[in-house]
Amino acid sequence: MKKITVKNREEFTYYLFLYLKNEDEEKFREEFLELHPTDQNEIFKLMSNEKRKRVYKYVTAREFADIFSGLQHYEQKMVFSELDDSYALEMLNELPADEITDFFSEIPEHISQYLLEKMDKTEADNIKHLLSYKENTAGSLMTTEFVTVLPSQTVSEILERLRMEGTDAETIYYLYVTNDTGKLTGVVSLRELITASLNEKAEKIMKEQIISVSPLADQQEVSKVIKDYDFLAVPVVTSNGKMLGIVTVDDILDVIEEETSEEIGEISAVKGALDLEVSSMEATKKRLPWLILLLFIGMFTAGLISSFEATIAEVAMLAVFIPLIADMAGNTGTQSLAVVVRGLALDKFDRTKVFRLLKRESFTGLMMGIICGILVSIIALLIPQGNVILGLIIGTSLFVTILFSTVSGTVIPLIVHKFKIDPAVASGPFITTINDIIGLLTYFSIATALLHYL
Amino acid sequence: MKKITVKNREEFTYYLFLYLKNEDEEKFREEFLELHPTDQNEIFKLMSNEKRKRVYKYVTAREFADIFSGLQHYEQKMVFSELDDSYALEMLNELPADEITDFFSEIPEHISQYLLEKMDKTEADNIKHLLSYKENTAGSLMTTEFVTVLPSQTVSEILERLRMEGTDAETIYYLYVTNDTGKLTGVVSLRELITASLNEKAEKIMKEQIISVSPLADQQEVSKVIKDYDFLAVPVVTSNGKMLGIVTVDDILDVIEEETSEEIGEISAVKGALDLEVSSMEATKKRLPWLILLLFIGMFTAGLISSFEATIAEVAMLAVFIPLIADMAGNTGTQSLAVVVRGLALDKFDRTKVFRLLKRESFTGLMMGIICGILVSIIALLIPQGNVILGLIIGTSLFVTILFSTVSGTVIPLIVHKFKIDPAVASGPFITTINDIIGLLTYFSIATALLHYL
Fold first, then answer.
1. What angle do CA B416, B417, B420 make, to 5 degrees?
2. Does residue B229 contact residue B212 with C-beta atoms inside 8 Å?
3. How far apart are CA B329 and CA B306, in angstroms?
4. Which segment of A29-43, A388-402, A417-431, B329-343 scores lowest on mean pLDDT?
5. Does this entry carry the keyword Magnesium (chains A, B) (predicted)?
6. How far apart are the first and last CA of chain B?
7. Residue B350 above 80 pLDDT?
8. Which of A275, A305, A352, B35 is the least crowded, having the fewest Cβ atoms under 10 Å away?
9. What residues 300-319 of chain B have any CB closer than 8 A to a CB of chain A?
10. Per-residue confidence at A105, pLDDT binned at 50, 70, 90?
């Protein structure tokens, strides 16, 4: 396995492309197959249609499976359409069940149905079962390739079996002890197996109290278990104790990445449009609807202000502080939103915690509101056209704005989460707009009331 | 190892607390020590001062090490101050070097110096060495407890050694083949070792091309290597090939969490204040400075508008669209910012990519600007006091605002990243303010120029 560094990547790529061009199959295979799959993958992605076709010829379906499994879904779809049926099927047979399932859930159903019919029956049944789980659950993440041992097997028997048979399992670092009905009764880590004496039985060294997840558990919960317990894999077990599969830590790393993008999308209203690789047409198509929606929501704020047009016509100075109120509403609300979104992602919430958080955020908003309110009043006194009344108006409004924004930035995402509404409703810009309206309403109401003192 | 679920946690806690209260050491030890350290930890955190003191008496320093290592830094500091010297030192000796280092970098230097003098000399030297690495580098993350084997050792010799000696190593799933000068020459995974024939030599089955990181590598780079290659650990190696330690995947899970909080902090100006557990006083202390800073920056925008007071006094209607322009500036800028921040986190950037992204975002901004600009012009025509000129003013301004905001939301974080300026400068609110200023400046400039047509 050769290592590619940033420095020599271009060189590697250059030579590999040259071999392809010269149709030097032997040289290509020799150099290419020695690379780590991740590097093979990176180089494969740079290839033209023609070069890719040559790769399918030079590299066996079995060898190609590793490359395929590292591609993004949209790349997989493109590549898959270039493969002939028998090559594609042979390659699929090499892939772990969870990856096939992942891929199948992305392609049209008639194609996946067709492939399932052509595939090995046991494997096909397996995948059909996995496909029946909802996206983002432990069931859809798990792989069914794991190692089981019997309670009565000894350490040396197990080691001998692993040595002789090898294994297709995704990890052999945990061995799952199941009885004849498939019920999970214990777990032995390979570490424990290696350090146990050779004639010890599995049932003697296994841990009997097993930390597992249900196939219906949300991926966030699975990720939390693996992170909290520093596991390399967690077993997926039905309510009656039957073991279905395992979710491994490398799958969780991908889950975490996905969830982070979701969190950030939530705060910044770019849900599902964080990809760097899409065209500007694609990016526009994903982001523009949000902007248009926000534009219409923004018209509400405009409508609100227009009802105070008479006030503004009398004291134009008042318009000066509109962006200040609006921006502070946005800033404070987003701070609270970020706290809650991050908190929900780390799954730290029960009733007591929600209550404690609400209390904390309210007090925080109160203190920040008082201090910023006083500060801005003083500034309003000091500026050229400033006076006490202006200070009072803007100070009070800012206080209300900050207090309200902190609370709404906390409560709205919590409600959305609790009632499983689309989290986008709680995204930054929406909360900002609500806070804007409250802030500006307060501002202009007080201003209109005190107009003849200004 | 017993499993605690949400359902039985309270019951477990109740009984354990009862045993402590009744000073029933035997019962407490029996039940408590059978729990997974993560669960021991959760229950320990709920204990009063008095109960904790009893735990230190009932549980040996060796056993307590696991609990200690799962605590947050601030909890570790509190607990540590409650331990007597010999217990504390014995416990430290049980902890992996990377965790001691982590803890020592959080406590006053005179205390860590004192402890280092009292500790076992080899371990102390080890930790001094680790402490010399800058925070967030591979060197500061790594642990020095790993398994090395000699090239000439056979599979059965290595297995025998692991079985006899056991090991304190953080992972035994990779065995590192080093020659007599400590130079890393190969890696054997335990999986390969298990499936190899017993009399094979390590040098025969090892992978010679090793993917490693430098001790100075940023934690983000380390995390990327582990994620991309699906590793359980990566060796940390000096430029002359000497192996210093390993970084394991569970450390990386913590790194990713930390980096995510940073990303979100960047977008929402709550840097370092996302913790749910702090008091409102603490939260205010961390978040208020940002708000005050943003308040002062907001005064610039106010100042800018005040220079157009005469225009507003003449056509009060113009004030109505101030929040719309300001909010759209914020929304568009934040979308681009989120794309870049996420992209930088996943480390996908070289010169070509930066250029491509800039081009894409500019086009995206152009298209979104044109469409939103036309839309808002039409709306401005349709509202009661609307007319063509107002439509022209607001449409053009919104177009400029969206185009500029998309570009600035892309360029500013990239510049900040490139020149390693504090990323907070590129946070959402700061970019929003700049975009506000440009948007409103355009709006009022055009409005002032076309004033006598309105």
1. 80
2. no
3. 19
4. A417-431
5. yes
6. 78
7. no
8. A352
9. 301-302, 305-306, 309-310, 312-313, 316-319
10. confident
The tokens describing B235, both together, are: 């060796």
User: Smallest CA–CA separation between B29 and chain A, in Å?
Assistant: 17
Instruction: Indicate the residue type of A267.
Output: I
Kindly identify which residue of chain A lies nearest to residue B228, measuring between CA atoms. Answer: A38
Q: What is the Cα–Cα distance from A177 to A341, expressed in whole angstroms?
A: 39
Contacts 24+ apart (CB under 8 A), B422-426: B423/B262, B423/B266, B424/B265, B424/B266, B424/B269, B424/B271, B426/B266, B426/B337
A448 touching B (Cβ < 8 Å): no
Does A293 have pLDDT greater than 90? no
**Chain A residues touching B266 at Cβ < 8 A:** none
Question: How many Å apart are CA A319 and CA A323, to the nearest integer?
Answer: 8
The whole-angstrom distance between B346's CA and the closest CA on chain A is: 9
* B59 Cα distance to chain centroid: 33
A323 with B440: Cβ contact below 8 A: yes
Q: Specify the pairing of strand B243-248 against strand A243-248.
A: unpaired
| Long-range contacts of A372-381, Cβ-Cβ distance < 8 Å, separation of 24 or more | A372/A328, A372/A398, A372/A399, A372/A402, A372/B288, A372/B291, A372/B292, A372/B295, A373/A398, A373/A399, A373/A402, A375/B292, A375/B295, A376/A324, A376/B295, A379/B299
- Banded pLDDT at A1 (limits 50, 70, 90): very low
Which ipTM score applies to this complex? Answer: 0.74
Average pLDDT value for residue range B321-335: 88
In chain A, which residues have their Cβ closer than 8 Å to the Cβ of B288? 367-368, 371-372
Residue A130: pLDDT above 90? no
Element (H, E) at B248: strand B243-248
DSSP letter (8 states) at residue B49 = H
Asked if pLDDT for residue B240 goes beyond 80, the answer is yes
Name the burial class of residue B398, with classes exposed (0-12), middle (13-18) and buried (19+) by CB atoms within 10 angstroms of its CB.
buried
State pLDDT tens for residues B243-282: 999 999 988 988 888 888 877 777 776 665 667 677 888 8
Per-residue pLDDT, averaged over A152-169, amounts to 85
Name all domains of chain B by residue range, CATH numbers in brackets.
6-140 (1.25.60.10), 147-256 (3.10.580.10), 280-453 (1.10.357.20)
**Amino acid type, A355:** F
pLDDT at position B4 is: 56
At which residue do the structure tokens 């104790």 appear?
A241
The tens digit of pLDDT for each residue in B47-60 reads: 988 899 999 999 99
- Cα atoms in the 13 Å half-sphere on the side-chain side of A190: 23
Residue found by looking up tokens 């509404």 in the block: A421
For strands B243-248 and B233-237, give the pairing. Answer: antiparallel
Digit-coded pLDDT (tens) for B116-144: 888 888 888 888 888 889 888 999 899 88
Q: Which DSSP helix (H) or strand (E) runs through A105?
A: none
Asked if residue A334 lies in contact with residue B428, where contact means CB atoms within 8 angstroms, the answer is yes
Q: Best interface-test mutation with A: which of B40, B159, B194, B254 has the largest number of A CBs within 10 A?
A: B194
Contacts of A210 in chain B (CB under 8 A): 3
Q: Tell me how far CA of residue A284 lies from CA of A51, B327, B392, in angstroms.
A: 32, 18, 23
pLDDT band at A354 (very low <50, low <70, confident <90, very high): confident
Closest to A276 (Cβ–Cβ): which among B1, B290, B357? B357
Among the partner residues B207, B287, B324, nearest to A301 by beta-carbon distance: B324
- Phi then psi for A154, rounded to 5 degrees? -90, 165
Contact A57, A27 (CB under 8 A): no
Q: Return the structure tokens found at A434.
A: 């609500």
